[in-house]
Structures are given as C-alpha cells and as structure tokens.
C-alpha cells in the first residue's frame, strides 16, 4: 500500500482515539466552587473577550485573579480570545462576564473538545507527520509504524482530551522547532520555539538544548564569519518574535512585569501535591519543606537542576549534531522535571516529547519511559474519572509500540547502547546486560500494572490516605531517574557505526 | 514490521477490541434499553412469562435461543450489578450497566474474530513471499474486523450483530471447507438466534440439497439424480429439527407457539422502517409522494422477494457444486430480501456487505461491486448516529474504512476497480452528504422540511444498491465458474 494512504490511516486512527477519549469526563466536572482546568480555560475565554488587554493579568473588580487568573504567557491569552470569538457566535452565554462561571453543558463540552482537536490538527499532528516522514531513518513501513506509535502516546491524549489542556499547541510548536532545526532551517526553528515558549513558560525546560545547539553550530561555522552571521540572525528573529507576541504589553513596563510575575510565581513552595520528582520522593524520608527555609529550597533546587543539566548541554555545545540535540532535549527536560521548583505531574509531557523523537532509535527505552510517564499521572486520571480511557490507551500503546517497532527483538547490547555501562560497572563480573534490561522491563511493567490495579481496587489504610499516589510517584520517580541516567550515558557514548545501523534497518 | 507470519491477526484483533472500548461512553440508542429489558425478563421471570411480558414497550421479539443467550449474560450481571436486572428499572443506564453491556458486546465479538480467522484461512494466497499488508487474507481480516457498519451499529448504537454475523461467517467458512454438517448446524443455531437470517435460508436449502444430498455430479456439471443419499438428508433434517426443538421445544410443550410466532413476525408495522432503508419500497414511497400509487400489502413484498431470488436459486441448482456459487447465491438472497422485504431495517445491508468481503479479496469484479456497495450501504447507516458528539467519530471511521478498502483492494488487484459511471455515483454520494449534513441544515428550508435529507439519502442510496444487485446477478448468471487463482 502506498505510504500516503498508510499515513492518512494512522492520522485518522489517532484522531478517532483522541475523540473517543474526549467523550469522557474532564477535570473538575461538576465540582463546585472551583471546578478544574476545563473551567480555567473557559474562564480565560471569558476574561480575554470581555476585558481590554491591559486588564488581563491584573487583579481588578472585574478580574479576580484568585479564580483561575491567567498564568500563562500572552499566546495562550490570544488563543483563548480566538476561541471566545467562536464561542460568542455559537452561544453568548458561554463567555458572559461573571455569569458564565461554572457553566457546564453537553454543547459547551463539545465546543471545548472541538477547540482542542482543531488546535491539534493545525499544529501538533502535521509536525508529527513531517517529523516521522523526513527525520526518521528506515523503510517507509518503519516510518509509518513510528508515526502511529507517536500519535498514540497516551499521556498527551489523556491530558489534552481527558483532563483538558492545550499541551498539543506548545509541544506542537516545539516540535516544529525541532523539525526546522533538523532540516537546517535555524531561523524558522527559533521562531517556532519562541512561539512555544510564549504559549507555555514550561517550554523553558527545552530552552537550554535549543540554545546550546544553535550556539554550538554557530561556533562550528566559525565565530568570525558565517557563525556570527547565523548567531545574529537567530538573535534578531528571537527578539522580533518576542516583541510581536508581547506587543500589547510593551507600552508600559509595569504591564510586562506583571505578566512575568504571573507566569513565574516564586511565592509557592518546592512542590505541590504528589509529583514523581526528587523533592517529593525525598520528602517521604525527611520533610524537606519544613527543614529548609523557602529561600534555601529555591537555591538548592536551582543548584541541583543546573548540575543535572550542565553535562548534557556542554556535550551538545561541543558536538552540535541532531542526534545529540534530541538526547539533550530529553536530558534537559528530565533534569528540570526531577530537580526543579514547583513541578507539576503534567510537566512530564515535556520529557515525553523528546522520548517520542527517540522511538525509532531506542525503541525499548523510549517505550518504557513513555509508559512510565503515563502511569505517573494515574492519580490525576483517577480523580478525573478517566480510568477506562487510561487502561485502553496504555494497553494499546504498550502492545502496538512493542509489536510494530519490534522493541523486544531489537534488544542487543549494541542496539541499546549499553557498551558504556560495561565500562562503568567494570568491578562487577561480565553480565548479559541486554537480558537484564529485558527482564527489568517485564518486572517494571508488572509492578506498574499491579500498582494500577491496587490503586483502583483497594482502599488505602485510614492512617495513610495518600498511600497509592505516593507509591505511584515513587515508582515513577525511580523510572525517571534511571531513564535520565541512561540517556546521559548514551549521549556521552559514541554513536554506533554506520554498518551496524544499516543492518538494523 | 514484525517478521512473525501469523502474529498480525492477534494484533489486528486486539487493536480493534481496544478501539471498541473507546466508545463505551458514546451515545447508545434505545436498543440498549431493549437488551437490558431482555436481561431483566429472562432473569426475573419464569419461562412461561417470557413471551407474554409486556410491561415495557420493548417486548422479546427474537427466537428463544437468543433469550437463552440473554439469560446467560444476566448471570454475569447478577454478580456485577444486580439493579440492572429489575424489570421495573425502565431506561436504567448507570455507568456500571453501560460498562457491563458494552463489554458483553465486545466479548461476544470474540466469536466474530474466530469466524473471521476461519474465513481468512479459506482465502487462497498468491504464491511467493509477499509483504503482509498485501496478502488477501490480511485485507479480508481488516475488512471484516474493522468493518465500519459493525463498529457503528454494535459498539455505538448497540446491538449484538458481531456475534450473530460470526456464526454466519463461521457457517460459510465450514461450507467452504466442505464440512457441510457443521455448517448446517451453525446455520440452524443462527436461525434460532435471530430469524432475520431466514432471508438467506433458501440459499442454504438449495445448496445443501444440491451439493450435499446429491453426492455426485454428471460430467457436464448437472446433478446426478441417482446419487441422492437419504442418509445425508436425514442427517441434515435431524440436525435442523433438533436445534429447533431445543430452542422452541419448551414453548411448544407449553402451547405458546402462536404467541411466540406473533412476537417474532409482527406484520402490523409499516412497509418501511422509520429511517427508510434504501430499498425498492423507498423508491416506491418516494414516487408515491408525487403520484398516488397503491398501497403495498405484505404478501406482495413476499412475492417480489421470492421472484427476485428465484433465478439465483435456479442458477445455483444447475451449476456444478462449489462454495463460491453458494456464497454468491447467499449474497443475492440477502440483497434481494433487503430490496423487496417488508419493514426492512437499513442495518440489514450488513448481511450483504460482510459476505461480499470474502469475494472482494479474490476477484477483481467483485472488488469493484464491494467498493460501491460498502460505501453506499455504510453511508446509509449515518442517520443511526444523529448526535453531534458522535459526528466526528462516524465521519472519521467512514473515511478510515473507505480509504483502506479503496487503497488495499486497488493494490491487491493491481489497478482501478470502478467504472467511470460508478466513480461519478460515489462522487455524487459525497456531494449529497455535504448538502444534507452541512448545507441543508443551515439553509432556510432546513427547519421546514427536516425529512428531506433522509428522503434524498435513502433514494440516492437505493439506486446504488439496486445497481449492485443487478451487477451481482449478471456475474452469477452470466459467468461460468471462475478459474481458481494460481
């Protein structure tokens, strides 16, 4: 069958899965008084439509910042404004100032879900298709398999179409950035990434690799000639893009400062709720939040994040290839997730995107990490009533990615780049690392399945009401830490020789 | 792709089963309440009340074997969620009840998966190693397992067609493997599960008589009268009668047979179902709106049906024995009954589309007819899902199936399959759907004539289906036995 028809079929399957998930409940459904992320997005449509730009980020009588105040950069606000225009033509009650608070109806849900699908269709899905067709290696069947697995990644589908968010837009823009850099269009790639940054500030997790890659590339081209020219061009495009996005707020420095204050709230603590990162897991053993002052918590997390992200970025600076760039994206986002300040469990999606980019090259590890990332958000999905879609999409993704990408067959030591581990574990006797990895995979999947069943079927003991979310986050944390170490080791080892790569395809 | 030769079938099956689970929270029609009510009836009431119970409007109108099937399902419901089994709980649809019933449909579909695998085994493969995606058995598996009509009707609208078509396809597969007694047993069971399959009983009758009771043919292919085997006829009769006795027996003994039959064959309903299945009577009713024509009583429809399938039955009798001719005759019987039957539901078009898939992967001409019939027939199912939330699903699924059918069959048979007029018809179908679903509701006539899109759809589709019927007839009567693929 021709590639274009297979690609269309994959996209159609991806769309049906997304819409099927969207038939279920959303975050905060029916939960007065604050509801959830769905109501937040609806409220932003209300605010951006009814109030002038100058009042969007300020606490006024008409705009109560305590009720889901805008805390994303301007592009999110513009997107909400566009959606609000459409909402107004269909049913003005949906965006009435103040009266539409907590508005819930089947028609409104249909509209909101449709906005997510349209945004995905315009931004995220084309980027995925182009990435898989032009920047992955292998036969066209392999590319189509990678495309299907990429589109079926459950974490993004469940958060965007279940819980309700617009991560597809920011991740889509970031992916366009990666795509452009991979094809050598650096200025366009910078524009795309700036758009991503201006949509969600969490894209800063990906900022260092973009910066180091472009800087490294410029240095390689020679800082006295083409390199400098490239650097200047990129700097100019970045500045222009930022200026255009922030245009309404640049007239008054107070405006810009308020926006920055809203999108970087440093008054909150080291972490909130249960999240699978170092601080929350450490908190189980010793109560960090009470031992250290809030300032020292900030400095500690800053120092640890910097230490964790530095090796990968310096390696990228010295070797600015696309392969190193992909790995650096994964390492940087994981480092930030594990050690940064005020991390939310949904931020794992920022690490999941680079892992999807690596589906073709390191299938088993990428699939393992992606599965763990979806599992780490299980408590969130249970709260939102998304158990059935969670089970169906996770099982489907796990089975089909392993089957289509032959993950368990392409499992030799060479393919898994485990050579460096031998050097590190030189003191231990020679082990069959590939066999160990496979068995660790099976055990880990069983543990995740067992924990999922326990979290659903069993009631926690009364003196430990948060037992299952904590267990889930600790298990996920160990997976993420292991993946972080693995990707770092792979980034520092030599790429496999051309001959062995050709054999695997 | 994985190198394993036979692992694609479990992968396709698991994929489609997980896919079906995504529609658990989708819209379900009153058929959901029908089956919940039947679970309640069979569970809570004694046998003698099953066909008399009418406190709900959804009375039991399937044969007794299906009632036993519902009784078996009700045992699971008793363990998991008893409130759904209360007769008084009309229109009860708690999340647990929906989950349980949806899962029963998905699980009973396992029989359909098994039957599809048996059919794939009967398909002849081309020699030489081929890419998995290009094999006739793979294409047939996708066309059967991922059939748009079944997904929409069973897993959203809510019915148990997958399970029933599984029995039918299994019976056909058995006949293709020359295991005629098993095939007959399965068909007898099927008739006692849902009597709509009486539509294709003549094909079975003629075929079994011709190819099983008469054991040999003459050299010119006609039947050898001397080779009649009473033993075989007795075996067949015994099987059919014992199945019917198992199913209807208790009711005959209680003297309730007339009541049961009146429930099974309610002729008080109208000539056309509410949504106007795209058949000849839809065209007749359409003409009736402009010219005043005579009303059509049920015996006339029966006569028309019999006349329409008679040539096919005669042709089956006169040809040499072959399972392919039998399948063709079965198709013509189902299409003939669809076109001329009384109170036909548009879901009945699946009775023609699914068996035609078996022929489509092996024969170029049949593939062309399949593309036309499946697209038209599937499009005529659109009015079943009228809610806004399900609109993207039905459009996307239709696109998926049609895209796959066209590209896979074109690739399999190497070249275009449709004649220019047929392509024009399908383009017209697309324009019709745009007009009916997008332009018409927004136009000024949208509120005044809400039934116009349904009328237009069913008239246009009936033209296509009648055309397919005639083409299938030509290929059955005109062509000699097709040479087997090398």
UniProtKB/TrEMBL annotation, chain A:
The protein's superkingdom reads: Eukaryota
Q: What is its main location?
A: endoplasmic reticulum
Q: In which pathway does it act?
A: Protein modification; protein glycosylation
Signal peptide annotation: 1-22
The protein's Enzyme Commission number: 2.4.1.-
Question: Where is it localised?
Answer: Endoplasmic reticulum membrane
Could you list the residue ranges that cross the membrane?
A: 110-134, 146-164, 176-197, 229-249, 298-317, 348-371, 386-408, 441-461, 467-489
Q: Which top EC class is named for this enzyme in its record?
A: transferase
Question: Pfam families this protein is in?
Answer: Alg6_Alg8
> Is the keyword Endoplasmic reticulum in the record?
yes
Q: How does it sit in the membrane?
A: Multi-pass membrane protein
Task: List the keywords (alphabetical).
Answer: Endoplasmic reticulum, Glycosyltransferase, Membrane, Signal, Transferase, Transmembrane, Transmembrane helix
Q: Which GO terms describe its cellular component?
A: endoplasmic reticulum membrane
Q: Does the keyword Amino-acid biosynthesis apply?
A: no
InterPro entries assigned: Glyco_trans_ALG6/ALG8
Q: Which reaction does it catalyse?
A: an alpha-D-Man-(1->2)-alpha-D-Man-(1->2)-alpha-D-Man-(1->3)-[alpha-D-Man-(1->2)-alpha-D-Man-(1->3)-[alpha-D-Man-(1->2)-alpha-D-Man-(1->6)]-alpha-D-Man-(1->6)]-beta-D-Man-(1->4)-beta-D-GlcNAc-(1->4)-alpha-D-GlcNAc-diphospho-di-trans,poly-cis-dolichol + a di-trans,poly-cis-dolichyl beta-D-glucosyl phosphate = an alpha-D-Glc-(1->3)-alpha-D-Man-(1->2)-alpha-D-Man-(1->2)-alpha-D-Man-(1->3)-[alpha-D-Man-(1->2)-alpha-D-Man-(1->3)-[alpha-D-Man-(1->2)-alpha-D-Man-(1->6)]-alpha-D-Man-(1->6)]-beta-D-Man-(1->4)-beta-D-GlcNAc-(1->4)-alpha-D-GlcNAc-diphospho-di-trans,poly-cis-dolichol + a di-trans,poly-cis-dolichyl phosphate + H(+)
What are the recorded GO MF terms, alphabetically?
Answer: dolichyl pyrophosphate Man9GlcNAc2 alpha-1,3-glucosyltransferase activity
The family assignment reads:
Belongs to the ALG6/ALG8 glucosyltransferase family.
Say what the protein does.
Dolichyl pyrophosphate Man9GlcNAc2 alpha-1,3-glucosyltransferase that operates in the biosynthetic pathway of dolichol-linked oligosaccharides, the glycan precursors employed in protein asparagine (N)-glycosylation. The assembly of dolichol-linked oligosaccharides begins on the cytosolic side of the endoplasmic reticulum membrane and finishes in its lumen. The sequential addition of sugars to dolichol pyrophosphate produces dolichol-linked oligosaccharides containing fourteen sugars, including two GlcNAcs, nine mannoses and three glucoses.
> What name does UniProt use for this protein?
Alpha-1,3-glucosyltransferase
State the species of origin. Answer: Champsocephalus esox (pike icefish)
TrEMBL record, chain B:
Going by the record, the broad EC class of this enzyme is transferase
Q: Where in the cell is it found?
A: Endoplasmic reticulum membrane
Query: In which pathway does this enzyme or protein participate?
Result: Protein modification; protein glycosylation
GO cellular component entries: endoplasmic reticulum membrane
Topological category with respect to the lipid bilayer: Multi-pass membrane protein
Q: Which UniProt keywords apply?
A: Endoplasmic reticulum, Glycosyltransferase, Membrane, Transferase, Transmembrane, Transmembrane helix
Family of this protein: Belongs to the ALG6/ALG8 glucosyltransferase family.
Record's protein name? Alpha-1,3-glucosyltransferase
- Species of origin reads Champsocephalus esox
Q: What is the lineage of its organism?
A: Eukaryota, Metazoa, Chordata, Craniata, Vertebrata
């Amino acid at each position: 069958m021709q590639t274009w028809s297979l690609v269309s079929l994959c996209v159609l399957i991806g769309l049906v899965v997304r819409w099927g998930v969207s038939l279920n409940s959303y975050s905060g459904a029916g939960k007065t008084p604050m509801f959830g992320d769905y109501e937040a997005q609806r409220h932003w449509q209300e605010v951006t439509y009814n109030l002038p730009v100058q009042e969007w980020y300020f606490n006024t009588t008409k705009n109560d910042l305590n009720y889901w105040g805008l805390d994303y950069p301007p592009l999110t606000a513009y997107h909400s404004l566009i959606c609000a225009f459409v909402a107004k033509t269909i049913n003005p009650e949906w965006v009435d100032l103040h009266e539409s608070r907590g508005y819930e109806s089947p028609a409104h849900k249909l509209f909101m879900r449709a906005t997510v699908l349209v945004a995905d269709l315009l931004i995220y899905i084309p980027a995925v298709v182009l990435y898989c067709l032009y920047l992955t290696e292998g036969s066209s069947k392999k590319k189509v398999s990678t495309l299907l697995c990429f589109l079926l990644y459950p974490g993004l589908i469940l958060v965007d179409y279940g819980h309700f968010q617009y991560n597809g837009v920011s991740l889509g823009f970031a992916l366009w950035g990666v795509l452009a850099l991979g094809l050598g269009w650096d200025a366009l790639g910078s524009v795309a990434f700036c758009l991503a940054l201006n949509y969600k500030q969490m894209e800063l997790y990906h900022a260092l690799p973009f910066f180091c890659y472009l800087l490294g590339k410029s240095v390689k081209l020679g800082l006295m000639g083409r390199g400098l020219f490239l650097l200047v061009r990129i700097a100019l495009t970045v500045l222009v893009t930022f200026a255009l996005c922030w245009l309404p707020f640049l007239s008054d420095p107070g405006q810009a400062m308020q926006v920055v204050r809203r999108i970087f709230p440093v008054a909150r603590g080291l972490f909130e709720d249960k999240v699978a990162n170092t601080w929350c897991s450490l908190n189980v053993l010793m109560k960090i939040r009470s031992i250290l002052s809030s300032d020292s918590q900030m400095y500690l997390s800053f120092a640890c994040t910097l230490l964790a992200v530095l090796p990968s970025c310096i390696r990228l600076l010295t070797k600015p290839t696309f392969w190193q760039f992909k790995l650096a994206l994964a390492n940087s986002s994981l480092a930030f997730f594990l050690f940064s300040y005020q991390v939310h469990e949904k931020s794992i999606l920022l690490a999941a995107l680079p892992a999807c980019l690596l589906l073709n090259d390191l299938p088993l590890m990428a699939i393992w990490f992606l599965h763990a990332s979806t599992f780490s958000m299980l408590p969130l999905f249970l709260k939102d009533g998304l158990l059935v879609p969670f089970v169906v999409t996770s099982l489907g993704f796990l089975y089909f990615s392993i089957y289509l990408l032959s993950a368990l067959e392409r499992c030799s030591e060479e393919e898994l780049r485990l050579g460096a581990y031998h050097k590190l574990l030189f003191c231990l006797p020679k082990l069959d690392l590939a066999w160990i990895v496979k068995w660790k995979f099976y055990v880990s999947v069983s543990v995740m399945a067992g924990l999922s069943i326990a979290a659903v079927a069993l009631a926690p003991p009364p003196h430990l009401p948060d037992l299952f979310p904590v267990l889930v986050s600790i298990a996920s944390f160990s997976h993420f830490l292991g993946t972080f170490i693995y990707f770092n080791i792979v980034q520092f080892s030599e790429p496999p020789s051309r001959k062995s790569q050709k054999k695997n395809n | 792709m994985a190198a394993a030769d036979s692992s694609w079938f479990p992968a396709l099956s698991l994929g489609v089963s997980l896919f079906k689970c995504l529609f658990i929270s989708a819209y379900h029609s009153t058929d959901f309440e029908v089956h919940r009510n039947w679970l309640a009836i069979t569970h809570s009431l004694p046998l003698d009340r099953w066909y008399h119970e009418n406190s709900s409007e959804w009375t039991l109108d399937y044969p007794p074997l299906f009632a036993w099937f519902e009784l078996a399902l009700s045992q699971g419901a008793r363990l998991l969620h008893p409130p759904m089994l209360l007769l008084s709980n009309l229109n009860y649809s708690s999340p647990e009840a929906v989950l349980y019933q949806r899962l029963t449909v998905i699980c009973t579909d396992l029989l359909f998966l098994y039957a599809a695998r048996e059919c794939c085994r009967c398909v002849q493969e081309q020699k030489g190693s081929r890419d998995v995606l290009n094999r006739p058995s793979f294409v047939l598996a996708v066309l059967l397992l991922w059939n748009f009509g079944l997904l929409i009707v069973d897993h959203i609208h809510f019915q148990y067609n997958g399970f029933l078509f599984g029995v039918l396809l299994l019976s056909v597969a058995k006949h293709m493997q020359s295991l005629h007694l098993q095939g007959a047993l399965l068909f007898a069971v099927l008739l006692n599960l849902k009597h709509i399959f009486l539509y294709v009983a003549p094909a079975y009758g003629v075929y079994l008589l011709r190819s099983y009771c008469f054991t040999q043919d003459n050299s010119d292919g006609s039947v050898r009268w001397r080779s009649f085997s009473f033993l075989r006829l007795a075996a067949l009769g015994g099987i059919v009668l014992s199945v019917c006795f198992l199913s209807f027996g208790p009711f005959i003994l209680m003297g309730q047979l007339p009541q049961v039959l009146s429930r099974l064959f309610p002729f008080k309903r109208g000539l056309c179902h509410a949504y106007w299945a795209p058949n000849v009577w839809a065209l007749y009713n359409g003409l009736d709106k402009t010219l005043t024509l005579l009303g059509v009583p049920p015996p006339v429809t029966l006569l028309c049906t019999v006349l329409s399938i008679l040539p096919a039955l005669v042709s089956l009798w006169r040809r040499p024995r072959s399972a392919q001719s039998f399948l063709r005759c079965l198709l013509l019987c189902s299409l003939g009954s669809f076109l001329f039957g009384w109170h036909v539901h548009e879901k009945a078009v699946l009775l023609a589309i699914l068996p035609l898939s078996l022929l489509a992967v092996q024969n170029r001409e049949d593939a062309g007819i399949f593309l036309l019939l499946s697209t038209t027939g599937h499009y005529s199912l659109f009015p079943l899902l009228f809610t806004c939330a399900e609109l993207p699903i039905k459009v996307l699924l239709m696109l998926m199936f049609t895209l796959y059918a066209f590209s896979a069959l074109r690739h399999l048979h190497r070249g275009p399959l449709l004649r220019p007029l047929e392509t024009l018809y399908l383009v017209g179908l697309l324009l019709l759907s745009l007009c009916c679903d997008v332009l018409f509701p927004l136009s000024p006539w949208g509120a005044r004539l809400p039934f116009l899109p349904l009328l237009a759809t069913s008239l246009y589709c009936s033209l296509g289906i009648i055309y397919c019927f005639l083409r299938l007839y030509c290929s059955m009567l005109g062509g000699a036995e097709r040479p087997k693929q090398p």
